[in-house]
TrEMBL record:
Gene3D superfamilies per UniProt: P-loop containing nucleotide triphosphate hydrolases
Keywords in alphabetical order: GTP-binding, Nucleotide-binding
Positions with a binding annotation for GTP: 27, 81-84
The keyword Nucleotide-binding appears for this protein: yes
Claim: Nucleotide-binding is one of the keywords in the record: yes
Gene: Arl16
Native organism: Setophaga kirtlandii (Kirtland's warbler)
SUPFAM superfamilies in UniProt: P-loop containing nucleoside triphosphate hydrolases
Protein's recorded name: ARL16 protein
GO molecular function, one term: GTP binding
Length: 138
């Protein structure tokens, strides 16, 4: 199915190999995100790399998430999505616009970045590999 923007919350179960529940919260749900932080073992933060008008608000949301005390040690994967579109900004451009080097050096949690396309599956294997690693039993 064609991916659609999320405006609510969705739950999906994955086997990695143990069962993991992924809770997807759309960007407009930002005000309630903190109510889920205490349940979070890993965080995937998705950015629309084809929409330069949303870069500043996405950056502010990401900074807010990274500064939340309950997420201080939760591994974070920032996904620059929609790389299948001709107008997408490259990983180099997105890292620069987000000042990711500064973010990574100041953050208390490990941060990884990947380019993805939810539409054609580019980067999905790497996302699953990151999740397996991030959620590995101690």
């Amino acid at each position: 199915p064609v991916p659609v923007p999320q405006v609510g919350t969705n739950l999906t179960d994955l086997r990695l190999p143990r069962r993991v529940t992924v809770r997807e919260l759309g960007g407009c749900m930002g005000p309630i995100w903190p109510s889920y932080y205490s349940e979070c073992s890993a965080l995937l933060f998705v950015v629309d790399a084809s929409n330069p008008t949303q870069v500043s608000s996405s950056c502010i949301q990401l900074l807010s998430v990274l500064s939340a005390a309950p997420l201080a040690s939760v591994p974070v994967l920032v996904l620059f999505n929609k790389i299948d579109l001709p107008c997408y900004m490259s990983l180099v451009e997105m890292k620069s616009l987000f000042r990711m080097q500064d973010m990574v050096s100041c953050a208390t949690q490990p941060i990884t970045m990947l380019e993805t396309s939810a539409r054609d599956g580019t980067g999905l294997a790497e996302v699953l590999q990151w999740l397996r690693s991030a959620l590995r039993e101690p």
